[in-house]
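Please fill in the sequence for the structure shown.

STRUCTURE ENCODING:
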């Protein structure tokens, strides 16, 4: 029983270490478990080969003989490229920092002027509402405004007609007075010339001054009108 346990332990040790079994005649018998483990696993070797190929493509070894000067020039070239990249990144970083500082200043100024801008906005909104109210009011009163406009035009036209008529009558009176003055004494009216002249003056005064206001104007107009009739 103990012998079988020792053989089993030896077999497990040989399988773990990968050593070959040796027969009593000195021939080596390969361990089948180790050989099976060393067989290629499908997909693993292809993956490793692809990774190695990509690594070899990423790094291209310099062509020709490798010397100290060529390695030095290659390293200097790479160093210059890296330095240019770093300088470009530093410039972009400085520009970004300047933009950030300007943005912060603008934000602080905007926050400081925000109350005044809010008051201005409120004021202009009130002005806009007031203008809209005025426009609505004018839209409602437009018909009345047009009526008053037409009425004022009619009144001005009537006044112009009255003034024209009065002027024509005045000219007619003057012409009649001149014509009567030039007539012979036998063709003149039997009335006294002074009375005729006074009546024309009174009629002219009555045409010019209508009884608008005042008791005295009304009396003068009534007296002149009675003389004219």
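FILLED IN BY: designer on duty
SEQUENCE:
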């Amino acid at each position: 029983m103990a012998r079988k346990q020792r053989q089993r332990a030896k077999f497990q040790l040989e399988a773990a270490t990968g050593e070959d079994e040796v027969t009593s005649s000195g021939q080596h018998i390969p361990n089948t478990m180790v050989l099976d483990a060393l067989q290629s696993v499908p997909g693993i070797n292809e993956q490793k080969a692809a990774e190695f190929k990509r690594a070899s493509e990423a790094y291209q070894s310099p062509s020709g003989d490798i010397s100290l000067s060529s390695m030095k020039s290659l390293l200097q070239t790479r160093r210059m490229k890296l330095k240019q990249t770093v300088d470009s990144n530093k410039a972009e970083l400085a520009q970004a920092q300047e933009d950030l500082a300007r943005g912060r200043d603008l934000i602080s100024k905007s926050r400081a002027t925000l109350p005044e801008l809010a008051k201005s906005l409120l004021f202009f909104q009130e002005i806009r509402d007031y203008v809209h109210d005025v426009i609505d009011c004018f839209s409602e009163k437009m018909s009345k405004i047009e009526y008053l406009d037409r009425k004022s035009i009619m009144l001005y036209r009537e006044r112009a007609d009255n003034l024209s008529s009065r002027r024509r009558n005045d000219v007619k009176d003057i012409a009649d007075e001149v014509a009567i003055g030039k007539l012979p004494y036998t063709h003149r009216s039997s009335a006294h010339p002074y009375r005729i002249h006074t009546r024309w003056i009174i009629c002219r005064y009555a045409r010019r001054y209508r009884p608008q206001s005042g008791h005295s104007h009304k009396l003068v107009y009534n007296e002149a009108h009675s003389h004219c009739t």
